[in-house]
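batch_manifest entry 22 of 60
target: Aminopeptidase P family protein
source organism: Natrarchaeobius chitinivorans
requested by: lab member K.T.
priority: normal
notes from requester: please return tokens only, no post-processing; we will run our own comparison against the previous entry in this batch. if the run fails, retry once and flag.
--- input ---
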Amino acid sequence: MTFYDRRPMEGTRGTQAVDWEQRIDTRRLRRERKERALERLRETDLGAALLLSDPNVRYVTGLAMTGGSGADHYTLVTEDGDVVHWDTADHATTQRANCPWLEDVRYACPGLGNVPRASGSASAREFLRSTMAETVHEAMAEYGVDDEPLGLDVDSPALVAALEGRGIDVDVSSAREAMAEARAIKTDDEIECLRTVAAICEAGFQRIVEETKPGRRETEVWGEAVSELWRHGAFVGGGYLTSGPNTWPKHQANATDRVIRPGDLVYADFYNVGYLGYRSCYYRTFSVGEPTAEQREAYRTARNRLYDVLERIEPGATTDEIARAFPDMAGERADYYGADEHWQLTTNHWAHGLGLQLYEVPLIWRGLSLEHPIEIEEGMAMAVETQEPAGRQGVRLEEMVVVREDGVEILSQWPVEEITVLECQ
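--- output ---
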């Protein structure tokens, strides 16, 4: 298999802005993302799109959308490239002061999400939806697109009805698909963001190596790892560490107060760790003391399966071809779960796109891809994950990759050939 050979200094020059070398160019990042979104929008019959999904809003505006109640911020983008952004009072005020690339920032009326739900009144909810639709219609008229179809990236029947009540022709599929297609192919700056967040996760793995000892609780070790991630400037929106029997099957509570013991397998998943909004998904497994022969064999099986999948990922390959490298029902231990179909085994063995969201295009999974394949394109970024039981414990491994013309680039660099052994001292 051919792997992408990085150019000198690719793979994180640092996480801060400096004047003495070219790093991530945030102006170019914003410009190229908006250009990609407009390119896809112009391929549709839409005159404009109303974006309510946080990752889509960030993709077009560059604003730090880290999750919220939904529709207390939203963005209109027209086919001519005009952008109107609505946000809560304080946010809109600071955006006007700090985001000069946004020329039209207005105060939002949250017609969807937690605010109207919390009102406790049907008439209040109707007022909020109606006001939101009215102000969107006013902006469309100002920019000359009120007579053209409006795309929504979130299907909300109540909002659709409110917009249609003002004579707007609403399309609830084209904008969502256009944004998914735009975001699927990463720019150079987006790829460097993903390299950087992978490097930050490796700082977290190193802290786990230093802090994992018999007698420490999962939550204690995980807390130290999270502290390291924040220290490097990451946004930590998820992740966990589990040990011993909590590693198979994966514990529903994620990190618990279980005390780590000699002979335990320990794994950590740094998922939804963000750098400039770009999300990680990165598993590694450790052994507290020398692993048993059964544990080593499970690790070897998981690692080989992972790289069998990676060997199939290239431009032009289809997701059904790649998915066949993942285990069949016997390899999935379907009898253990009492499962009859691959779709019942979500997240065990699959690959999923990465970007401003944890799950993006493409999704490669036996439960879906065999019957509904799509083609892999250069510039797609994804996480590929596998697992394997070892007695009453389990191994999980995951690599972050980007598809290159001359081979897959592996963004994650924590050693994977052999299990990382932690000394009992």
